[in-house]
Amino acid sequence: MRITLKEAKSNARNLRIVKTGFGCWSISCDYRGKCLKTITHDSVSMDNYNSDPDERRRWGHPFLIGYRSLCSHIIRDNETFYSH
Which of helix, strand or coil describes residue 74? Predict the structure, then answer.
């Protein structure tokens, strides 16, 4: 999945996050015309996603890395679920 910083800032996949408990988030995004959902405990990706979109570190944009990680987590979980 190749998402650019511009697409991530405009929320191209319509990523939605709802905190459901201590260290637990319900995340969903649009993929191939469907709204896919899952639960995650990945606090590192959440911290990266919640950083400033214009922040840049030596290894890249944390916001973009978090966005990609969360979207791919949703897609991966749903593809393995539907493949059985």
Answer: helix
Per-residue pLDDT, averaged over 60-81, amounts to 88
> Looking at the domain assignment, is residue 66 inside a domain?
yes
In a domain, 61, yes or no: yes
CB 56 within 8 A of CB 64: no
**Tens of pLDDT along 7-20?**
888 888 899 999 99
> Tell me, what amino acid is at 32?
R
Q: How many domains does the chain have?
A: 1
Residues 20-69: tens digit of each pLDDT: 999 999 999 988 888 999 999 999 999 999 988 888 888 789 999 999 99
Q: What's the CA gap between 51 and 18, in Å, rounded?
A: 17
Kindly tell me the burial class for residue 52, based on how many C-beta atoms sit within 10 Å of its own C-beta (0-12, 13-18, 19 or more).
Answer: exposed
